[in-house]
């Protein structure tokens, strides 16, 4: 069984590793494996604090993946000899003004309805947990089960684990999907070389919707959702600056701070519908720093070491597209939007299984790419002018993440 995976980000790599472990010959096609959205991501494993109304099916998948993290990272570290930065530090979500507090109360009620573990704290209790928080914090939710991992370390460990498991890497861009008869047959590289395969997995993140050669009716409806993010450093003299992930609503704007054990502090993130633009803007950086400063005034003392923008692979219902498509031999592992790092373990396990023994694990059934087939057919019939993944109306807003 030969499997070719287009895309060597965290999702492509975890799928490659798990599939190679099940005995398949796996090739990953990517000019820079280990890059992608995970290079930018903060790595919150925020199944509970990032819950949104109407996303209960996604919640089940997110929780299933979060539960696998301890075993997954232990196995990955053993396989690669590298640490992933997995930290069971929990999360505190706080509110700055009365409206923010009302919003957070609603989230708490949703948690209770879904049977999730989260505890309401007063502002004073929040500051007792995290003394760097501003006196203006009005209340918060303590969620001890939402942890974090370092996505860059995770990607590096997956790359090594793949190499050790015998995965081949072709460091080139995929030019087009090759289709023979009614069957995906591999990929043609940009230099014209063809890589033949029995099964092809499209795991190219936000770019998954624009690979040439993919029949329109199976092209995944993913689009780029821009996120700007900052990295600061906590000098030892200020440590521990924060002891857990802190998320906040600051006058309606969402912001998060993710403190790593090695002193890195990640501050994110914007969420912008800007097409393929990855420019870091003065406005994006200003808003993140302004809100983070209101939340944790001491942040302005810290060295700012990196500003970056990445593209989340957004899907129409914010949930991933996982499993076989209507084109025999073509599988998808894309559309993970805000949850790619969180969903890596469950995606790798499920895709490896479906690729090697054909069984579709129950937990990914609600996320079949086929749920969009009808919309695609209607689109084709109407000859919609807008290509999938095209820039949408610019509705830049601060991340819900
Ligand atoms: N889940 C974090 C983000 O998408 O910004």
From TrEMBL:
Gene Ontology MF terms in the entry: flavin adenine dinucleotide binding; glycine oxidase activity
Record GO biological process: thiamine biosynthetic process; thiamine diphosphate biosynthetic process
Domain FAD dependent oxidoreductase: 2-353
Annotated stretches, region: Disordered: 363-401
Signal peptide: none
Highest taxon in the source lineage: Bacteria
Pfam families (UniProt xref): DAO
Gene Ontology annotations for the cellular component aspect, listed alphabetically: cytoplasm
InterPro entries in alphabetical order: FAD-dep_OxRdtase, FAD/NAD-bd_sf, Gly_oxidase_ThiO
Pathway per the UniProt entry: Cofactor biosynthesis; thiamine diphosphate biosynthesis
Catalytic activity, reaction form: glycine + O2 + H2O = glyoxylate + H2O2 + NH4(+)
E.C. number(s) listed in UniProt: 1.4.3.19
Record keywords: Oxidoreductase, Thiamine biosynthesis
Compositional bias annotation for Basic and acidic residues: 370-380
Protein name: glycine oxidase
Organism: Streptomyces carminius
């Amino acid at each position: 069984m030969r499997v070719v995976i287009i895309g060597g980000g965290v999702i492509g790599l975890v799928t490659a590793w798990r599939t190679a472990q099940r005995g398949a010959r796996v090739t990953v096609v990517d000019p820079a494996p280990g890059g992608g959205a995970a290079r930018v991501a903060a790595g919150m494993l925020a199944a509970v604090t990032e819950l949104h109304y109407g996303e209960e099916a996604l919640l089940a998948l997110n929780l299933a993946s979060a539960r696998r993290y301890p075993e997954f990272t232990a196995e990955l570290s053993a396989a690669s000899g590298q640490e992933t930065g997995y930290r069971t530090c929990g999360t505190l979500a706080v509110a700055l003004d009365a409206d923010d507090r009302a919003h957070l109360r609603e989230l708490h009620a949703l948690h209770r309805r879904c049977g999730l573990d989260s505890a309401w704290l007063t502002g004073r209790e929040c500051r007792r947990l995290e003394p760097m928080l501003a006196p203006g914090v009005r209340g918060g939710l303590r969620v001890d089960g939402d942890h974090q991992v370092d996505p860059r370390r995770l990607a590096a460990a997956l790359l090594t684990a793949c190499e050790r498991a015998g995965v081949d890497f072709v460091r080139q861009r995929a030019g087009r999907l090759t289709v023979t008869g009614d069957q995906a047959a591999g990929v043609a590289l940009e230099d014209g070389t063809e890589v033949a395969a029995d099964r092809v997995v499209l795991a190219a993140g936000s770019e998954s919707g624009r690979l040439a050669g993919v029949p329109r009716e199976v092209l995944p409806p993913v689009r780029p959702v821009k996120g700007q993010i900052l990295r600061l450093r906590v000098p030892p003299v200020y440590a521990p600056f924060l002891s857990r992930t802190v998320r906040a609503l600051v006058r309606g704007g969402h912001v998060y701070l993710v403190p790593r054990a090695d002193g890195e502090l990640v501050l994110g993130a914007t969420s912008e519908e800007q097409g393929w633009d990855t420019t870091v803007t003065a406005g994006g950086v200003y808003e993140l720093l302004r809100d983070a400063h209101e939340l944790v005034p001491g942040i302005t003392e810290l060295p700012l070491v990196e500003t970056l923008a990445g593209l989340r692979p957004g899907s129409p219902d914010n949930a991933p597209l996982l499993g076989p498509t209507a084109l025999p031999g073509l599988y998808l592992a894309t559309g993970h939007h805000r949850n790619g790092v969180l969903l890596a373990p469950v995606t790798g396990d499920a895709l490896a299984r479906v690729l090697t023994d054909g069984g579709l694990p129950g937990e990914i059934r609600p996320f079949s790419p086929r749920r969009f087939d009808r919309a695609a057919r209607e689109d084709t019939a109407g000859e919609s002018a807008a290509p999938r993944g095209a820039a949408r109306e610019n509705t830049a807003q601060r991340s819900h993440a």
